[in-house]
Amino acid sequence: MLNAEPISIAILLTTLYNQVEMFDSLINKLKVEIRMSRAKKYKTIMSKDLALPHFEHAKKCTSAFSRKLEENSFIDKKVEEYKQNGFCEIWTEEQSKLADKISSKVLDWDKEGKYFKDGIINIDSEIYNSIPEIEVLIKDSFSEFLQKSFNSEYKVFFSQIIKTEFNNSGPRGSQLWHQDGGPGSAINALFYLRDIDKDGGAIELIPWKDSLKIYKKVISNLSLYRLLRKRSAKEQTRSKKVELYEKEINPFYSQYVHQPTGKSGLLVPFFNNVIHRGGFPKSPDKPRFVLLFYFYPSDKKTPFEKYRKEGFPKKSSYPKDPNF
Ligand SMILES: [Fe+2]
To answer: Phi-psi bin for 159: left (phi > 0), alpha (psi -120 to 50), beta?
Structure first.
């Protein structure tokens, strides 16, 4: 009799615990389905209230777009590839010449200790005007690809020159698998200022359809679901996510990882929400220099005059208002 009481309490607690587990798992399954249908529709892992204004705005930009674009088999194929996989790679002689001009300037600045802060130069008006090749890239080299991909005019939210060096402590931050989590209407683009190979820290990308499958596995994890509910566990959530991405990608998706390499001037546009990692050079004598852009659809022509006066508008990780 004396021992029966603790045993029955233990059984009761176990039953209760199992029921909570079952309930949690059921709720998470429902949430996963909702999040997956949202991710497919809006091409982002953002919540609906954040994703929808960008989605609607992109449609509005397309209806306002009256320009007739000529057929161009080279670019048209790239646009198709981009839409299909969530990324593509574009290289031309012209882009390479522009990259070489930009990199010679940037390497001088780096030697002189000018402009770079923690390996980054934000493109404010001074930098924009000091490197006129940036405007040539946006205005001429990338315009057809951007207009055809957005099916609208385009604008820049954010651009940076990034220098990444070998680091003894191993990859960190965006050098680990992640999704940017910005609006699905955004196009991220990396423009390599120097030749890039696998050891030089070339970006690695997972096709959109596989990114979705991996994302589903990651958000189905019950301990991640519990961490996501705790607002105070941001760092823990982030490292749990990285752990889950790796657990999924290393054994099952390695063969689908794409790593574009090539000569200076290589442009790699990719969906903001494909799973990717990049920028970890494996050799100390080979830092990586890239120009990073976040492009967005627009219902007006690209405001180059404004860029000359103010640089690019970024004030947060993505624009809250698609009309920025
Ligand atoms: Fe990223």
So the answer is: beta
